[in-house]
Amino acid sequence: MLLEVEGLEAHYGRIRALAGVDLHVAEGELVAIVGANGAGKTTLLRTLSGVHPASAGTIRLDGRDITRVAGPRRVALGIAQVPEGRQVFAPMSVEDNLLLGGYVRSAAERTETLGEVYALFPRLRERRDQPAGTLSGGEQQMLAIGRALMARPRLLLLDEPSMGLAPRIVEQIFETIGELRRRGTTILLVEQNAYAALSVADRGYVLESGRVTLADRAGALLADERVKAAYLGL
Amino acid sequence: MSATFVQFLLAGLTVGAIYALIALGFSLIYNASHLINFAQGEFVMLGGLATVFVFAAGVPLPLAALLAILAAAAVGVALYLFGVAPARGATAVGLIIVTIGASILLKGLAGVVFDRNFHGLPPISGEEPLRILGATLAPQSLWIFGVTAAVALALWLFFTRTLQGKAMLAAAFNPLAAELVGVDPRRVVLVSFALAGALGALAGVLVTPLAPTHFQVGTMLGLKGFAAAIVGGLGSGPGAMVGGLVVGLAESLAAGYLSSAYKDAIAFVIILLVLVLRPSGLFGAKTIERV
Ligand SMILES: Nc1ncnc2c1ncn2[C@@H]1O[C@H](COP(=O)(O)OP(=O)(O)OP(=O)(O)O)[C@@H](O)[C@H]1O
Ligand SMILES: [Mg+2]
């Protein structure tokens, strides 16, 4: 199993944002986590990336316990994240953003992966010298994804990649996610847009108040009455 | 141009280059940690005094200077590890108090480890002054201009051409995203403290042949470096350079044409003017947080 999470808890001061999360992701899978505002989705990804401390539970990558491994080390071990709100290095050029994505890799690997990312997102190649902050929202999202891919992740964490984007762009982003999945990238996708996320995913989890309340094949979740009522607006 | 005017200009540029080096230290640390390091002046004092004492012990001047610069870099690292890092989570004011405390401590230690007298160093290339438009220029000034320009160029290349330098900038722009690509924010701050220590000490080594050093010189030099940093906009490298020259020139012209009594007051006046009129400085885009 690539990622195994057991009883994971995380706090902000006294607020318990994760109340014992169990989940797993197998190699090559695309797993979606859906949940309402404040359910703890971002906190989960932050804790997996090690930029927020776990207060209980374990995180295993390839069977190895990484719960206490510092965030930057986890990137080298293969966990890359596309954070909520994209978080590009706005004053820096598109290419520098991408190269920094490969910070933990060797120069040769960076050069090679940069070519692959440009092939996936030709728009980024066209704008390579532009400051990242001048890109449109959709382009910034592509940049954030490209930057995470530069780390050659074994597990790609995506936090609401569709947030604040026009429907046409959202469609493109989900097409890209599907394409990455076909190429064999293992993905854990967090979304409020439950319909789009479950449509591309293999499996899904529903997160409510820091707990997993439902776990199933994505198709089954899409058909579930409770999911339909709460998250699909049906 | 009158010879006197040229004389004031040259003096202002010389001391301005020194202030620029100190200001670069303020900006490096501010960028990495949003902290104003009020111990920055002590690095200048340490650089000068340590060079004096190591040189007096028989070590050749360039080696003595190098050792002093490395020692100041180590003091910078220690300031981070034992002063700033344990206070993580403290308020901005709390952290400033830590650096002020460190500054008092370093002054006290220097007064004991070295002594409380004034000390000079021989200039690098003798004392025979050069004549420029009727004014005179000490060869040491040329060294100061050259070394400052070389340091500015090296830093510029580091931050614009190397991945390590870009990673440090990235951590300043967006610490979370930097951590998510594998840049350790603590290491960035640590390297900034080391660099700031080295730059401060270098300023001390360069200025001591022109202005004798003493265990308390760090206070005023740090203040002037701070004035330079905020004139240029805290966190801006080019701003620190320009700010240093502006403060140096203002001080030299005020001392020359008004009264030398104003020499040290000028830095305070500049700090007040900047804070009131343009808190972001000449090159700063965003306003600095109120502390
Ligand atoms: N920095 C913080 N300080 C205090 N509480 C926080 C902080 N960040 C999140 N929380 C709280 O933790 C809980 C989970 O937040 P989180 O951001 O993980 O939710 P989310 O599912 O990502 O929500 P959204 O869909 O709005 O992004 C919420 O109750 C939130 O108020
Ligand atoms: Mg969120």
Summarize the structure.
By secondary structure, chain A is α/β, with parallel strands linked by helices. Helix content of chain A is 39%, strand content 26%.
Structure description:
- The complex is a heterodimer of chains A (234) and B (291).
- Chain A is an alpha/beta fold and 234 residues long.
- Chain A is 39% helix and 26% strand.
- Chain A has a 6-stranded mixed sheet with strand order 6-7-8-3-9-10, sandwiched between helices.
- In chain A, helix 3 packs parallel to helix 6 (137-149).
- Chain A starts with a strand and ends with a helix.
- Chain B is mainly alpha-helical and 291 residues long.
- Chain B has a single domain (3-277), classed as ABC transporter involved in vitamin B12 uptake, BtuC (Orthogonal Bundle), CATH 1.10.3470.
- Helix content of chain B is 71%, strand content 2%.
- Chain B contains 11 helices and 2 strands.
- Chain B has helices spanning 3-33, 40-56, 61-84, 92-113, 139-161, 163-173, 175-180, 185-207, 217-232, 237-257, 265-277; strands spanning 130-132, 135-137.
- In chain B, strands 1-2 form a two-stranded antiparallel sheet.
- Chain B is globular.
- Chains A and B meet through helix 2 and helix 3 of A and helix 6 and helix 7 of B.
- The complex binds adenosine-5'-triphosphate (ATP) and magnesium ion (MG).
- Magnesium ion binds at residues 41-42, 84, 160 of chain A.
